[in-house]
UniProtKB/TrEMBL annotation:
Pfam families registered for this protein in UniProt: DUF446 (PF04287)
SUPFAM superfamilies referenced in this protein's UniProt entry, alphabetically: YqcC-like
Protein name in the entry: YqcC family protein
InterPro entries, sorted: UCP006257 (IPR007384), YqcC-like_dom (IPR023376), YqcC-like_sf (IPR036814)
Length: 108
């Protein structure tokens, strides 16, 4: 399985975890909120909003168009901290850790 396919599977798992725990939204945040320049849009979006409206779509775009994937990044420390005490914390954090692990592994 290619790295693009693995990313796609993990993104689907992340979306399912967000949906299962009631964090998937039907209405997009405002264009201003989505246009934040801060890391994780921390000044305008919640963690789950950032995952749904910024992270997942950008990663889907890269995988769908077979664009180069980021070499290395880490979202799980932010997800783990931001979702403390939130329903689904463990499930969502686990998937984010799996994504981080995939991006710490060299491409094959």
């Amino acid at each position: 399985m290619s790295k693009h396919q693995e990313v796609g599977e993990l993104l689907a798992q992340l979306q399912q975890a967000l949906e299962h725990h009631g964090h998937w939204q039907e209405t997009s945040p405002s264009p201003e909120a989505l246009g934040s320049k801060e890391p994780f849009a921390i000044d305008t979006l919640t963690c789950t909003e950032w995952l749904q409206w910024i992270f997942i779509p950008k990663m889907w775009f890269l995988t769908a168009h077979m664009h180069p994937l980021p070499v290395s990044f880490s979202i799980s420390p932010y997800v783990e901290e931001a979702l403390q005490g939130v329903k689904g914390h463990a499930d969502i954090t686990r998937v984010s850790q799996d994504i981080d692990t995939l991006f710490q592994t060299p491409s094959q």
